[in-house]
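User: Hey, my collaborator sent me this sequence without any context and asked if I could get a structure. I don't really work with proteins. Can you help?
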Amino acid sequence: HGHRGCRGLLPENSIPAFQKAIDIGCHYLEMDVVITEDQEVLVSHEPWLNHEICLAPDGQKLTPSNEKSYNLYEMTYAQIKQIDCGSIGHPRFPLQRAMRCYKPSLREMIDNMENYTKTRGLLPIAYNIEVKRVPKDDGFFHPNGEEFSKLVINVLKEKKVLHRSMFQSFDIECMQIARRIAPELRLSFLVDNDKSIEENFKDLGFFTPVYGPYFKQITPEMVDYAGSKGVKIIPWTVNEESDMLRLIEMGVAGLISDYPDRVVGLKSRI
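Assistant: No problem. I've predicted the 3D structure and written it out in C-alpha cell form, which is a compact way to encode the shape of the chain:
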C-alpha cells in the first residue's frame, strides 16, 4: 500500500504521488480524507493546512501556532485547490521531490487514477481510504461520524469502486457505521494503543477483515490470533527494509509504506 501515495518520494496525498505509486507497482493507494465546507471529500491527512507541507493561501509560510486557523472544513474545494501543498518539500522526507501540488478531492483523485490505469493498460488499482475523524472535533474540523462516513462511502459508490476499496479508521464509531451502511465494504480497524488484539476487537464489537496496528506493535502471537479469526494484518507505516523483511517473514498480509519502491525491491529479492 503506497502511504499517502509515496510520501517518501513525492508530496503526500497528491495526484503525482498516487500516479507514481501505481508506476512502482502498488496494489493499493492509501490516503486520508477530510471534509470541506461544501461537503466535498478531500484527500488530506489534517483538516487544516499543515505548516510542514503547505503554504498559506497568500503564499506565506505557515507556523505550528497558526496552521490550525486554516480550517479546511471552513473552505470550499475551489479555494483549497488554489493552495500550494508541495513546493516547499517535507523536512522529514529528504528524498521527496518538491513540486507545486494541491489537495485533490476523492472524486477527482479516483477519476484520475481510473483513467491513468486504463490508458496504460494496467490492472485497476485498489483504494485504502482512512477516515480522519476525532469525535471531540465534530462540528468544528469535520462532521459527525455518521455524516462523515456516508459522504466517503457515497463517493466510492458513485465512482463504482466500492468493491475495490477499503475503509479504515482509528475511530470505532466510524467503523461501526461503515459496517452498517455498506456491509459489502472491506474494513480495516486501525489501532495505536497498548491493548491486545483481543481487547481492541472486543471494544469494536466485531472482527474486521483487516487489522492495522503500528508496525512496532506486531508480535507472532498477534499474527497467529488474527489468523485464527480470519483476520489479515496490514501494519502502518513501514519504511526500513529490515522491518519490512521481519514483518513479511512473520506473516503479515501487506505493508503500508512511504517508500513502496523499497517494498517492491525487497520482494523481488526474497
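In plain terms: The first strand starts at residue 2 and ends at 3. You can pass these C-alpha cells on to your collaborator as they are.
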